[in-house]
Design goal:
The chain is α/β, with parallel strands linked by helices. The protein is built from eight helices and eight strands; from the N terminus they run H-H-H-E-H-E-H-E-E-H-E-H-H-E-E-E. The radius of gyration is 17 Å and the shape is globular. Keywords: Methyltransferase, Transferase.
């Protein structure tokens, strides 16, 4: 990530969320994108693993995983949650792994933080085994609430993070996946909760058209 941040102030709110809330959020996103059915036999690389909720989800499904993140603070918190290999990776675009190492690369809310999305996706492709999948989530720049929020004195959630330097529309994200050589690029917009269900009973997400879907799940096959 190229924008300098104070690690404690940035990651502490994420870490302080309850385990239940984090688990629900990740189940919702990953169920919406169909992550579980695509988990490979080979290891999964969780890029930008943060405090480890994605790693816990992957391991709970029986897959092996390695987490990388630029933040020592986040990795220390992840190490408290789960026993997996964790690697600090600085802002350099190249991952510290050999070609064709992983069966899947997971990048949850990462690509909006990197200055060159195609370069990032090319690096994901490099470390993927043939037939491996990239699975990423990112805010949807075409969310109509980005236009409507200022009209009611609010700020769209995707614009509140100063490290969001590369926000995507669904069409641009699909094109960047293709430019990086990924086949079968698929984009889904949505993963909002069913509001009248309490959080602990609301693991599902529902799709929305691109103009009202607040987030995107994207996949591509190497």
């Amino acid at each position: 990530m190229s924008t300098k941040i104070d690690e404690t102030s940035y990651f502490a709110p994420q870490v302080s969320k309850s385990d239940r809330k984090i688990a629900v959020q990740y189940r919702r996103m990953f169920a919406f994108g169909g992550l579980a059915k695509h988990l490979p036999q080979g290891p999964v690389l969780d890029v930008g693993c943060g405090a480890g909720p994605g790693l816990r989800y992957i391991r709970s499904r029986g897959a092996t995983a390695i987490g990388v993140d630029p933040s020592i603070y986040a990795l220390r918190e992840a190490a408290k949650l789960i026993d997996v290999d964790l690697v600090q990776m600085d802002a350099a675009p190249r991952f510290p792994f050999a070609d064709q190492t992983f069966g899947m690369v997971l990048a949850n809310e990462v690509i909006e933080h990197v200055p060159d999305g195609v370069e990032f996706l090319l690096e994901c492709a490099r470390v993927l085994q043939p037939g491996g999948m990239v699975f990423l989530t990112t805010p949807n720049l075409w969310d109509i609430r980005r236009v409507l929020a200022p009209l009611v004195g609010k700020v769209w959630s995707g614009d509140t993070d100063p490290t969001h330097i590369n926000l995507y529309t669904p069409w641009r994200l699909r094109n960047d996946l293709k430019a990086a050589g990924f086949k079968q690029p698929r984009i889904k917009t949505g993963f909002k909760p069913i509001r009248w269900l309490p959080p602990h009973r609301n693991p599902l997400a529902i799709p929305y058209p691109p103009l009202i879907g607040n987030g995107m799940v994207a996949t591509g096959v190497r």
